[in-house]
Amino acid sequence: MTVYAIAIIDSNTEVNTIYVPGAVFHEEGTYKEDSSKTIVHIRSEVSDMMGFQQTQYYKGGAWKTREWKGEFYNWNGTSEEWEFDSNKFWETVRTVRNSKLGMCDWTQLPDNTLSDTKKSEWTVYRSALRDLPEIQSGTTELDKIVWPDEPS
Q: What 3-state DSSP class applies to 125?
């Protein structure tokens, strides 16, 4: 049977690496460079390697399919379920939030030309940005984050 690609599977049943080698195909079994990983041959064409890694896993000597949940989920090979990684999610939200804060730092400088009313609006906006992770702590999707409106 033709081997189209090689997958290196980690101990969590995840495809750690997938590649199409040149002329040499490693034998299936324990990966020599890291004994915690296994080499598995892929015997069908793989047109989308990233998609394959996201939707396939190897358990019990067979390839299985799963629905891709997104970048904020980690695969649990034991339970065969995705688990939400709130740390990764909120790290991303905080990065966007911090960028928004940085873009309006100038509004809080003593030599800006804003009126006291406008400066106050920006202060309220910045406070809402800082409070966002606590206020929206139950959110698990980036497009569900409700960002405060930036003052005009």
A: helix
103 and 59: one domain? Answer: no
Domain identity same for 76 and 111? no
What does the alpha-carbon distance between residue 123 and residue 93 come to, in Å, rounded to a whole number? 20
> Residues near 41 by Cβ (< 8 Å), separated by ≥ 6?
3, 5, 6, 7, 25, 28
CA distance 18 to 20: 7
- CA distance from start to end of the chain: 65
Record the tokens describing residue 98, joined without a space.
Answer: 């911090």
Domain match, 34 and 68 both: yes
Yes or no: say if 83 and 129 are a contact pair by the CB < 8 Å rule.
no
Tell me the average confidence (pLDDT) per consecutive run of 10 residues in the chain, 152 residues long: 85 91 78 92 89 95 95 96 97 97 96 95 98 95 96 92
Per DSSP, the three-state class of 29 is strand
DSSP β-ladder status, 29-30 and 38-42: antiparallel
Q: Note whether 69 and 110 are same-domain residues.
A: no
Indicate the pTM of the whole model.
0.79
Q: Is 60 left (phi over 0), alpha (psi -120 to 50) or beta?
A: left
